[in-house]
Amino acid sequence: MSMVAEKEFIIFSIGNPGSTNRHSTGHIVMKALIEYFGAKQLFKPSSNSMYSMTEVDNIALVKSNNYMNDSNKSLKQYIEQEKIGLRQAVLIVVYDEFDLDLGKVKISPFKKNESHNGIRSIKEYISRQSADSTVYKLGIGIGPKPSNATTSTMSSWVLSNFKPDERQIIDNLSIPLAIDYIDHVIDVNGEIQDCSKLNASFTKRSNLQI
C-alpha cells in the first residue's frame, strides 16, 4: 500500500471508554491499526479532550473517549480543535455491527435511518456539516445477535465480553479484513465506486481464507 495520497484520512473508532467488550470492537480494531501503521501510541491533546489520537503521514487515527451515544461530541471536538476541513478529508468510522456475523466486515455510506446508537450520533453531526464530505462506516461484525432479543437483552449482550473463541475470530479474521478495507480506501483515495461490489469482493476473498 502506498502511504502517499492526495487526501487526509481520518479513521475514527467508537465504543465505550475503558472496555473491550462487543460494543467496543471498534476500539479493538483501532489498537491493531496503530500497530499496523507503525504509529505512536494514542494521546489526549489536552486534559479535557473527549478523544485520543495519533498520526502517521496523511492518516489520523482517532479514538472517541465518550460513551457510544455521545460519539458525535468527540468527533465534533476533534474536527474543531484540530481544524479539520471535512471536504478535504475522508472519514471512516469503525464500529461494532450486530447485524453482521462475527468474522465479517462491511463498508457502506451512512443510511437515512441508522439503528446503531453510535452511528446515529455521528450521523447527526455529519449531516450538519458539508454535504460534500466523504464519509464511510466500517462495520465489524459481532453477530449473530440473540434470537428474539429485547431491548434489555440486546443491551446486556452488546456489553458482554467475547468468548475466547469469538475473540480469536476477531483477531484472526475481522482485524486483517478491516485493515484490507482501509488499505483499499486509501489506495483509491477515498473514491469507492460501489460499496456493494467492494463488499462482495472482500467477502469472497475472506471465505477463501476460512
UniProtKB/TrEMBL annotation:
It comes from the Eukaryota. Keywords: Hydrolase, RNA-binding, tRNA-binding. Transmembrane segments: none annotated. The keyword tRNA-binding applies. InterPro entries: Pept_tRNA_hydro, Pept_tRNA_hydro_sf. GO terms for molecular function: peptidyl-tRNA hydrolase activity; tRNA binding. Pfam families: Pept_tRNA_hydro (PF01195). This is DEHA2B04114p.
